[in-house]
Design brief:
Elements (H helix, E strand, L loop, with lengths): L1 H17 L6 E7 L5 E7 L2 E8 L8 E9 L2 E12 L7 E10 L15 E10 L1
Antiparallel strand pairs: 1-2, 2-3, 3-6, 4-5, 4-7, 5-6
Amino acid sequence: MKITYAALLVTLLTGCASLGGGSYSQTLSFPLKNGSMVTFNKSGCMTKDVKFINTSNSSARVSGTVIVSNINGNQTIDEYLFSCSTAMAGGSSACSMVRVIGNGGPNQYGGLGCPDMKFSATRLNLS
């Protein structure tokens, strides 16, 4: 009976790890021309908690494209679009980030946890 429970536990943990989850989280940011920034957390192979931090003296919003490639090869694997709500001067707002191209995972990004993901922002629209 113990062996069955152990096998079930290993199967469940393997499934979670292959989806790119896990406890390792890294905060990344993209600076904007007015000193503001867009930040997000990379947890395994997933992005979450995208936020716009507005350090300017007026309300602003931002949108753009995030390109994800393998750090060892400069080929685009995934592309995300993001859009953030208007943030008051000195405030912050939530953003949404959606993958529109690609289906990269552990096999494309160096194994479990996707350690070889490289993010770069393009077409940033600050208004």
